Amino acid sequence: MGFPIPDPYCWDTSFRTFYTIIDDEHKTLFNGIFLLTKKDDTDGLNELRRCTGKHFLNEENLMLASQYAGYDEHKAAHTEFIRRLDSWDGDPTYAKKWLVDHIKTIDFKYRGKI
């Protein structure tokens, strides 16, 4: 099923994890994906990859430090998203939907636990 994709595509408080660093990084990811909807841009895709890699590393380190039980599932979801970015076809629909669904399902599981 999944959650509605916001229009305009931007972070709002319904995506709040209550961890400031993560929420700020999520805002950056929303913006990076939004910019890809405006034009197919190799530099923009590379910047999204960079921001995504940084965010995933930070989030995974927080999970490891707190011995979060859902780490393996979460890490696998991150790995799959990076794989899809590496084979980018220029259509931002997958990335938009993935981020929305990922935050509201997978990320919300760790609220209050990391």
Task: State the main characteristics.
114 residues; mainly alpha; Four Helix Bundle (Hemerythrin (Met), subunit A); 4 helices; globular; Haemerythrin_Fe_BS; Hemerythrin
3D structure, described in words:
This protein has 114 residues and is mainly α. The protein has a single domain, classed as Four Helix Bundle (Hemerythrin (Met), subunit A) (Up-down Bundle). 64% of the residues lie in helices and 0% in strands. The protein is built from four helices and no strands. α3 runs antiparallel to α4. The longest helix has 24 residues. It is globular, with a radius of gyration of 13 Å. The model has no long low-confidence stretch (mean pLDDT 93). It comes from Myxicola infundibulum (Slime feather duster worm).
Total of helices: 4
Mean pLDDT across all residues, rounded? 93
Radius of gyration: 13 Å
CATH topology: Four Helix Bundle (Hemerythrin (Met), subunit A)
Pfam families: Hemerythrin (PF01814)
Keywords: Iron, Metal-binding
Domain Hemerythrin-like: 18-110
GO molecular function, one term: iron ion binding
Summarize the structure.
This protein is mostly helical. The chain contains four helices and no strands.
Fold blueprint:
Elements: H1 20-38, H2 42-65, H3 71-86, H4 93-106
Helix pairs in contact: 1-2, 2-3, 3-4
Pfam families: Hemerythrin
Family: Belongs to the hemerythrin family.
Binding site for Fe cation 1: 26, 55, 59, 107
